[in-house]
Each structure stands twice: as C-alpha cells, then as structure tokens.
Amino acid sequence: MSFTLTGKKIDWSIFDATWYAKKYESILQFLNIEGDAALEEFYQKNGRALRHSPNPYFDEEWYLTRYPKIAHAVAEGTWLSGFDHYCQTGFNYQNPTWLFSQEYYFKRQPLLSPVTLEAEGFKNLYDHYLNKGDEQFLSGSWFFNPNIYLENTPEHIEELSAFVQCMHNLKPGSMHEARFSWYFDPEWYLETYPDVKKELKSGLWSSALHHYLANADPTQYNPNCYFSEDFYGSVNPDVKNAIEQGDFRNGYEHFLRHGISELRKPSANIDLQSYFHNTTVQEDIAQGHFSDVFTHYVAHDGRVEDTLETLKNSEDISKKLYREMCRVRLPVLLKQTLDFTYDKPCLSVIIVAHNLFTMTMNTLASLRTNYTGPMQVILVDSGSTDEIRHIERYVRGLEVVRFPGNIGFLLGCNAALKKVRGPFTLYLNNDAELMPAAIANALARLQQEPGTGAVGGKLVRTNGLLQEAGSIVWRDGRVNGYLRDQLPDTPEANFVRSVDYCSGAFLMVRTSLLIHLDGFSTDYAPAYFEETDLCLRIHETGFDVVYDPSIIVIHYEYGTSSFSSGVSMMTRNQNIFRQKHMRYLRQKSLYNPRLITKARSCQKNQTRILFIEDMLPCRFLGAGFTRSNDIIRNMIAAGCHVTVYPIFKPTESLEDIYMSFPDRAEVIWDRDLSNLEDFIKSRAGYYHTIWIARTHNTDRLAPILMNCADALESCMVVTDTEAVASPREYRRLKLRGQAPQNTLDDMLKNEFKNLFMSDKIVAVNKKDANLLASYNFSNVRVLGHLQAPLFSSPMWEDRHNILFLGSLHDQESPNVDSLEWFTHAVLPLLEKRLPENVRLTICGYVSPRVDLTSLLQNRRVTVTGRVEDVTPIYNQHRVFIAPTRFAAGIPYKLHEAAAHGLPIVATNLLCEQVGWIPSEDMLCADISDAQAFADAIIRLYEDKDLWNSIHQHALERIRKENTKENYIETIKEIIEVS
User: Domain spanning 316-599: which superfamily?
Assistant: First the structure.
C-alpha cells in the first residue's frame, strides 16, 4: 500500500467533513450545521441532491454534466448520486474530476493493468495517481503539470504533493489564476472572455480552467491564443462530425488526444510539422523538457533560432572555445599519464604533429578513451618547438619518429608506415577528437567487408557543422566535401556508401594494401591531394573506399596549417592529380551543383530506387510496414541504393528511425509529400525505379509524378499494392451494420484508378494477384512475406498464456476491432475453462490515438506495448490468436508467429488469405461463432499432440514458402537487377 508524504493514504471514496465544511461554508452556516456526523448526515440527505462533492478529489457537478447518461440514471433513482455511481462501478472507466484523465494517465503508465494495481493495493488508476504518481511528479492530465503548478502557485502546503495540494487550494471566487500547464493560459482566457471573469468572481467556478473544462458550450471557447476551435473544425471535417456525435467534447480534446501526434494545425498560422523538424525542438522533447511539439511551441511562442545560420556564424568563437577546452583538460591529462603500450596491436595509428602540444594531447586522450584494445601509436614529431619534443614524459608506449624540421603530413606518414605492425592503419590528424565507438566502427567495417580497402567518417567542425560526409571528385580534378556547412544529422549524411575518397583527418586503411601502394605518393609533398590520390589508387586495385556515418570525428579544421597556405598547395597539387588520374576522371561528372547527388557515390552500375511509403516503415509499426522494411533490406542486399521517403513526416525519434533500417539506406526523415516534387526535380535522372508502397498512394502521387515526368524519364514505376483494401473496407462496413455507398466492384475500380501509371504491380498473395488480373492488369508479380523458421523454439510444456501481437494504429483498425471482439465475445467464454493464471498478452506498437481502457478492465489482459525483440515474447506463449474480422493481404503476424513455432488460432478469413489448410497448419473459426473460437483455443492449449502437429506443419510452410533466396530473386526480377 502506498501513502502520501504525511503517511496518510489519500482516499477518494470517503466523505471528508473538514473539507466539506470549508467548501460549502455559506449554506452550512446558514443552516447552523456543525460536527462531522451532522455534516455527513446533511450530505447524505440533502447534499447529494444539491450536487455537492463529498471530498476534494471528486467533482459531483462536473461528473454529472460530463456524463449525462449517469445524470439521467441518478435522476431516475438508479444511483444516489454521481459519487455513488463512481464508487460502485464508474471508478473502472470514468474520470472523477475535470483535472484527471484516466486515458491520459494510462497511456503514460501502460504497465498499470488492473492486475498490477490490485497487487499493489490500489483501487484504480486514480487511486494510484493520488497516492503514488503524484508524489513521483507524474501528470494525470494534459491540464496539470506538477512542476508548472508549483512554480506558479503562491500557496504551498509543504506536506502535500502537487495535485493533492491543488485540489485543496481550489476555492470558488478566487481571482488568483495559477497556470497549471502549457495547454491552457488562464490569463489570456480571462482577458479574452470577460464574462467568465465575472462568473469566476461571483463564485460559479473555482478557476478559469474549471470554467473551460466544465462549461456547457465547450466549442465556444479557445484555451489559449494558439488554438482555434473554428479553424480546427473547418479544416478537419472528420473532427467536426465526431464532436457532433459526442465522441469529443470539443476540437481541443481531439487535438490533445490525436491532433498533436498527427501534427495537425491548431490554428491558421501555426505549422507544427515544420516546427517539429527543428533539431532544437526535437532534442528538447526527447530530453523530456516538453511533452510534445505543441507545448514547446506555446512555451517559446513559436520562436526557435535558426540553428544552421547560428552555427555558421559561430566558427571563430567555437574554435577559440575548443582551444580553451583543450587547455583546461591538459593538467588532468598530464597527471594521469596516457598508456599505449601493447603486445600485438589490433591497429596502428599514425599521427603527424608540428607543435600544437595541447591539442595533440587532447587527440591522444580521445584515442585512448575511444578504443581500449591494443594499438600501436606512432607519433611523427615534425620539427616541433613546443612540449611535443618531450611528449614521452607524459605518454607511455608511444613510438616517436623525430625530424629536425617540418617535413609535413605526407612525408611524415610515409616515414611512420615503415614501423607499422597492425593489420589496419589509421591516419589521424592531431587536431581531431574521436566521438564514441569511432575506431570500433571503422574496424568492424573493414573486418566484415573484405572488399573495403579504406573507410572514413563524418567530419564535424568545431561549430557543429559538417566538414564533409565523404568527398567527391569531379572530372576537372576539383574536389569538395559532400554536405559541407550542413547539420550532421541531415538525412543525406547518414547512410553508408562508396565514395571517391575520405579525408586524411581520419582514414583507416588495410595495412597490406598501404604497403602494396607504398603509402602516399610523394608527388604531392608536403600536403594536400595525397589522401585523394591514395583513395583513387585503392579503387584501381579493386577495393572500395567507404564513408561510414557511425564514425564521427570533431576536426579543428586548418589547425595544422594556415588556410592561405592550404589553398596555394591545393592549387598546385590539383594539376598533378588531374594528370595522374585522367582515366578515372573521365568517368566522373562535369562539375555542376545539380549533379552532386549523383556524384556523391562512386559505385558503378548501381540501381537506385526511391521507395515511397505512408510512413517510414519502421518494423515496430507493423501494419504492412514490416514487410516494406523487409523489401528495403533485400533491395540493399541485392546491391541497390534505396532512398526511403515518407508521405507523412515521421514523429519517431532519430534513434528509432536509424535503428530500423540497414546502414546503407538513405532515410529522408525530415520531408513529406509537400516536398516530394521539389525533391524529385532536384534529383532529375537519378532514380531508375520508383517503388510506391500501397495502392492509395498512387492517388496522392499521380499529379506529382506527372509534374516531374521530365525528371523521371526512363524511370520505372512499381506499385506495391501491399494489400487490396476495398474488400476489407466493404466487409468492415457490413460488420458495423453500415450500408456501403458503392458496390464492391465500384470500390475496386476506384482503388485501381491510378494504377495505369505503373510499369509493374506487386501483390502480396495470389488471391490479390488474381483479383488485379480480373481488372485487366497483366503486369502483376507476387511478393509475400520473408521469414526464417526457428526450429529450436520452446515446446508445448515450456510455454504458457495466449498472445496477440500486432500494431494498433487507430480505433477503426482491424487489430483494434479484433481485440474488442475477442475480449468481449470470446474471452468470457474462456473464463472458467482456462487455468486461473493464464493471461492474454497484447504486444505491439500502440498509437497515442488508440484507447485500450475498456480492454484493460479484464483481469486476464496484459498490454506490453512495443518491445524491441519479439522472440522472447513468442517463446513464452502457447497459443497465438488472430481474431481478425476484416483484413486485406496477408497479416505479417501469422507468418512471424508460425516462424517462431507458435501455433495459431485465427478466423476463416485469415486462413483463406494465407492459403493454409485448416486444422493442419492452423485452427480456424468463423467470426460469427465466438464459442467455436474459444473451443479452438482450449483444444490447442490443452492438447499437446495437436499442438505439436500444427507447430511442425506451420514451420514447414514457412521453410518452403518464405525463403530469403526466393525473396531476393523475386525483387531482382521486379526491378530488373541482373
């Protein structure tokens, strides 16, 4: 049991005489009622009828206004009061006060299932919040942030936590308006609605927020200057209809529950999509400073600095700060004595230093911290006059090669190469600082890719902008770092690719290859173009030079030479370079900024694909996105370059995005449909194939592709239907008792209307392919799901519980519908037949738009939400359920469950779609027969022999039908890769 700071448990179910006496002081004094017993007697006899609240944690007036059906039942005598209803049954699913939302709290504390609450001694989510969540500074509503409340309220009750304190501080007629959250501005509200100020002063409301959340005309009031009910309703007719149907109190409720996560516009002049993609905004939200993009916008009045321009103008200052930080670190580095002693090195590092002792020590410390394995460090003292002459005093294990004068980077590196003992050699500038895992990532690239001869990384200048993300050579011999002066997290800088060359500030090369090439060519002494020449000679030997963005290096650019001297040497050596590499240069593009995307990679004859999806297809999203992710992965495995482009800007974190895709995928996370036309035109002639995922996107893309026809000449268009959707929608309407406005034939014709622009069409199964063929589409190929059977998964006796695994994207989705049907129609039939401890686990991504509150009232239900690794989840369960009542294509979860050795109970619809044999590959039941579905679960759960038989048959299906080899071969045939 949990208690408040005072040690006394907060109980929302009791009558609080002390509070009641203060709350209704006027009427009680008039009637001369005193004493706890008399007060409670008055409440029971008269207070209920007067809609009095029994304690500060339940608002009787608001409860009956918010839930008119309950008010009607109270009026008819079914319940003594709203409080009586809440205590008896409403506590499971209703909100007790205008300042707490059960839905909000559960979405932020998804592990608080009824079983968990009961085990911890809490009656419901509200009980947990009052006695535990509030003490932990959690929020129970959009409209109450404990930190903001405590910052803005002058009346503190030290022994009470924020929300409990707030409930005691609310007093009718109080004109002090403390701000409770960023979602509501009380000062603006009272200035905008002076009538409310009058009502507040007369005691009708306890605060401006109370009026906003409890008034009888909720669509007539805006909560702040950033949201407009009129605008939101006019541009979102779906919301307007939902409000009229009673699904939402007003537009702002929809905006808070769904609109913010969908980045809808709250008013005419506010574009949350653009605002969200400012890196500062994303970082603030990721760090928990703000709950979402809207609160950030409100707190900053929509003003955030232009990060790019600010950083561009800060380089002189940032360099001074960097030098100062190196100086500050120096005393610590001198005392700790860096140690590079080794036995057998994993790599050798060559550093050439001409003075810059402080910066060189910083580089050496960075090197030692970055990689703890044995390494040989060769430092070339190129005529230094500072403390580098005595660097052995401060660093153990260095191999120092000294020259009396400054021989430069090139000759110094060649002299050190003769001493190299490691299998890989890293050229590292002494004005560089390595970011975490840089060396490990470079070594992994060379060790895992035998065809890669050298690898370089993302060089970031001291001002936080790119020096280069790989480098480009043009036909005239000029060179430039790709994406110079751009932000390091720009999508184009964050995928692995073959490049002409990488800077010698960090360049790791196979030692055997370096020795074969005799290091840097002395033609370029003392410096510049030597690493460019070396990389081109590496290409000539048949090896690849790779840019890897996971290797990040801070580089104090021009720290080892003046910019003017660097420019003069570059000009001289460019002529030498052009003469030596005419053959290579003839294959390169003429210099033109419009060709930079094509020039950024040097891989020849590579098929380039623009893959367009609704959202970035992260695997955890499910709903067909897992299949799209598999297709992208196998396109890359087939040697293609893939650019992944979303119709809707993603709201996932960059960590989630980049973890979801192969490192050679170019993921455009900062643009959407509105930018697509400009994007395609900026890459005219670049793509060989455009792959459009989902048929409905052909409708969105048709006008764009026509406008870009000249930029896409000879580009093949492939539409992957993913699933033919019309039969699913037709079935959904019929199930809901809604008469479809069109025939299924008309719906299919409308769905297929823009497939004319597709050179090829992809279907997920033969059923969909045949349906497309019946509408005269002869260019159809079938590409299903990719799975590998796990024959070593746990067996029947080692598994328990029932599993549903699938993403829940919106309340109308097939998965949400199937769960509602199962929990309300099937699960009660299992109650007395399953062992007491058997539970239903619901696992997978849950959109903020989905409300699972009703499902979670069942004590057998546990919701895990999204998990990083589904294998342990599959391995723990004995039966997989797929109670889908309407669907299209083939649910990925069926193949995934079967591959993990988990037998399935599904509806006949899914069995037909997947093409498996009922009672042999899975058990099936009709959606109209809940009892049959329950019986199938019991049979599979209890019959070991039946379980083993279906387990083996399903695994064999996966082995035959879903192999990686067939998958890649089919993709190659579709996109015509030889």
Answer: Spore Coat Polysaccharide Biosynthesis Protein SpsA; Chain A (3.90.550.10)
Question: Any alpha helices (H) in 528-581, and if so which ranges?
Answer: 530-540, 563-580
C-alpha to C-alpha distance for 762 and 356, rounded to whole angstroms: 61
**Which residue stretches of 774-813 are H helix?**
none
- One of 3.30.1490.20, 3.40.50.920, 3.40.50.2000, 3.10.20.30 is the CATH number of 796-961, namely 3.40.50.2000
Q: How many CB atoms lie within 10 A of CB 550?
A: 19
- Mean pLDDT (10-residue bins), the chain, 978 residues: 51 94 91 92 94 96 94 96 96 93 88 83 95 94 93 74 88 69 95 93 89 94 97 92 90 94 92 85 86 95 85 91 95 93 97 96 97 97 96 96 94 97 98 97 98 98 96 94 95 97 97 97 92 97 97 85 60 91 94 93 93 94 91 96 94 88 96 94 96 96 95 95 91 84 93 94 93 94 90 91 91 89 93 91 86 78 88 95 87 90 93 90 93 96 96 91 87 88
Residue type present at position 420? V
Paired tokens of 39: 């007060």
Per-domain residue ranges for the chain? 316-599, 608-782, 796-961
Alpha-helix residue ranges (DSSP H) falling in 877-927: 892-899, 908-914
For residue 792 the two structure tokens come to: 């070593």
Contacts of 203 (CB under 8 A, 6+ apart): 172, 173
User: 360-377 in b/e burial notation, b at 16+ Cβ within 10 A?
Assistant: bbbbbbbbbebbeeebbb
Cβ atoms of 250 and 217 within 8 Å: the answer is no
SS3 at position 644:
strand
Gyration radius of the chain over CA positions:
34
10 Å CB burial of residue 570 (0-12, 13-18, 19+) is middle
Handedness of CA 399, 403, 406, 409 (dihedral sign): negative
Q: Which of 251, 235, 232 is nearest to 243 (CA)?
A: 251
| Same fold: 608-782 with 796-961 | yes
Contact 782, 769 (CB under 8 A): yes
Residue type present at position 292: D
What is the rounded CA–CA span in Å between residue 294 and residue 259? 10
- Packing angle, helices 964-975 and 625-637, rounded to 10: 80
CA-CA-CA-CA dihedral for 284, 289, 295, 301, to nearest 10: -70
Q: With H, G, I as helix, E, B as strand and everything else as coil, classify residue 155.
A: coil
Beta strands in 802-854 (DSSP E): 802-805, 840-843
What DSSP line would sit under 693-742, residue for residue? ESTHHHHHHHHHHHHTGGGGTT-EEEEE-SS--HHHHHHHHHHTTPPPSS
